[in-house]
């Protein structure tokens, strides 16, 4: 079996960005996104929002559609930020969106900036879950909402890779599995209230005909999705 190179996130997304879609583009992402959107407020009128690890901007777009008027998208990859800028495009009068390069470990945003902070499928790229959640807490106002998702740790245990193709070659992004117990301990230490936890399963209808995949993926959850509340 050919060994798939495991790349650091910055290197991986520089390669992936030119062909990275601005929407959920595989069955795991579709399952994760359905769960995230079910926990996102249906109306966010006038809110300030943060998309940490925004990628091509799929969650920023959802929050703008729900009425957010001030948003900041942050990503480590300048190439992914360029995709987000081009995909989101112009905004109506009264709506302001900024795109900034930065790390989830030290977000370049003022304290209590956001009413709602979103971080989709990013924390698995980091080893220090506590520091990532600490930063998300810092930039979210007291009483505000934090929506977070990650690939379910059971997938890591089954040997699944976060892989992609670029230039005719297959690569994978380095991933660290964070167990629910790790999330619980970090949230307790940081005074983040866990309001909801979802463990979405794949929808067989999302799997393309003839796709080759681990059949166990239909029997286990594929993502962990959290709605957290910053306590005063």
Q: Overall mean pLDDT score?
A: 93
Radius of gyration: 17 Å
Largest sheet data: 7 strands, mixed
Query: How many β-strands, per DSSP?
Result: 10
Which range does the strand content fall in? Answer: 25-35%
How many separate domains make up the residues? 1
Please, how many helices?
A: 7
Overall spatial form:
globular
Element order: H for helix, E for strand? EHHEHEHEEHEHEEHEE
Low-confidence stretches: none
- Give the CATH class: Alpha Beta
DSSP helix fraction = 25-40%
CATH topology: Rossmann fold
CATH superfamily: Vaccinia Virus protein VP39
Describe the strand arrangement of the main beta sheet, using strand numbers: 4-3-2-5-6-10-9
* Architecture per CATH nomenclature, i.e. the level-2 architecture: 3-Layer(aba) Sandwich
How far apart lie the N and C ends? 52 Å
- Give the helix/strand class: alpha/beta
Short description:
The chain is 29% helix and 27% strand.
Helices and strands in order, then pairings?
Elements: E1 6-7, H1 9-16, H2 27-39, E2 48-52, H3 58-65, E3 70-75, H4 78-88, E4 96-101, E5 114-120, H5 129-139, E6 140-151, H6 153-157, E7 162-166, E8 169-173, H7 180-190, E9 192-198, E10 223-230
Parallel strand pairs: 1-8, 2-3, 2-5, 3-4, 5-6
Antiparallel strand pairs: 6-10, 7-8, 9-10
Helix pairs in contact: 5-7
Describe the fold and architecture.
The chain is α/β, with parallel strands linked by helices and 232 residues long. It has a single domain (6-230), classed as Vaccinia Virus protein VP39 (Rossmann fold, 3-Layer(aba) Sandwich), CATH 3.40.50.150. It is 29% helix and 27% strand. A seven-stranded mixed β-sheet has the order 4-3-2-5-6-10-9, with helices on both faces. Helix 3 links the parallel strand 2 (48-52) and strand 3.
């Amino acid at each position: 079996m050919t060994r798939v190179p495991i790349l650091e996130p910055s290197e991986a997304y520089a390669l992936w960005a030119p062909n990275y879609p601005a929407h959920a583009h595989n069955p795991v992402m579709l399952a994760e996104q359905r769960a995230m959107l079910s926990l996102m407020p249906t109306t966010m009128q006038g809110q300030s929002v943060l998309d940490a690890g925004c990628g091509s901007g799929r969650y920023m777009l959802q929050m703008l559609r729900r009425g957010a008027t001030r948003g900041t998208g942050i990503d480590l990859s300048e190439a992914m930020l360029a995709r987000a800028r081009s995909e989101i495009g112009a905004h109506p009068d009264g709506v302001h969106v900024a795109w900034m390069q930065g790390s989830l470990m030290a977000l370049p945003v003022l304290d209590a900036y956001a009413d709602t902070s979103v971080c989709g499928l990013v924390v698995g790229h980091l080893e220090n879950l506590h520091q990532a959640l600490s930063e998300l807490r810092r930039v979210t106002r007291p009483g505000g909402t934090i929506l977070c998702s990650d690939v379910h740790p059971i997938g890591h245990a089954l040997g699944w890779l976060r892989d992609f193709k670029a230039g005719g070659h297959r690569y994978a992004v380095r991933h660290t599995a964070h167990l629910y117990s790790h999330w619980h301990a970090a949230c307790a230490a940081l005074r983040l209230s866990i309001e909801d936890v979802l463990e979405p399963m794949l929808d067989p209808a999302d799997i393309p005909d003839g796709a080759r995949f681990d059949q166990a993926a239909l029997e286990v959850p594929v993502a962990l999705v959290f709605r957290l509340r910053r306590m005063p």
